[in-house]
Amino acid sequence: MVANPEFQYMSPQEYLEWEKTQELRYEYIDGKVFAMTGGTKPHNRIAGNLYTDLDGFLAEKECEVYISDVKVQVTPSGPYHYPDVVVSCDQRDKEAIDMIRHPCLIVEVLSPSTAAFDRGKKFTRYRQSSTLKEYVLIESDEIAVECFRRNEQGLWVLHTYGQGDSLILESVGMTIPIEKLYRKVTFDIGENS
Questions:
Q1: What are the pLDDT digits (tens) for 128-172?
Q2: What is the mean pLDDT of the chain?
Q3: Where in the sequence of the chain do the CATH 3.90.1570.10 domains occur?
Q4: ω into residue 79 within 30 of 0, thus cis?
Q5: For residues 38, 89, 170 and 183, what is the CA-based torsion angle, rounded to 10 degrees?
Q6: H/E segment holding residue 52
Q7: Which CATH class is domain 39-181?
Q8: Which of 27, 88, 167, 186 has the fewest CB atoms within 10 Å, i.e. is most exposed?
Q9: Global pTM?
Q10: CA-to-CA distance for 24 and 32, rounded, in angstroms?
Q11: Roughly how many angstroms between the first and final C-alpha of the chain, as a whole number?
């Protein structure tokens, strides 16, 4: 993410109106807008693999899955983020065409430049959503997945997954082998010869 120096502060409504006229996607955090930067092939492949499996699994259910170009409104005053994959099973989201307001599952595929933010401040903000049940972080440079799941007491519990495991997504009732997430993913092993 790169901050847009054109604006010192925008209200949430100003952001929503302004962004409709932009060619790029921008996240909105505390009155500031941030351009979304491009990802790598592994990042794109992982998000696509998960989206494909979720879309097939949820086809006959009351849930909808979206990938990277649909923003999530965390609270009425923002922030607004573009997660890599988001699922909503809330009827209110079916009526909206421009964003998700009631996610049950949010997935971020990590890149070196955003990993700390996705694990820290972004997760802090996402936790403000009363409907969010799971927040999944998927590494794009190694096989490793972290799933933060809200328990019955409202506490977020970390579940980690690696090679040979299956990711359990309780929020949608789906289990997916980790190998399927990383199907056709090639990791950068250094300089090409």
A1: 999 999 999 999 999 999 999 999 999 999 999 999 999 999 999
A2: 90
A3: 39-181
A4: yes
A5: -40
A6: helix 41-58
A7: alpha beta
A8: 186
A9: 0.87
A10: 15
A11: 31
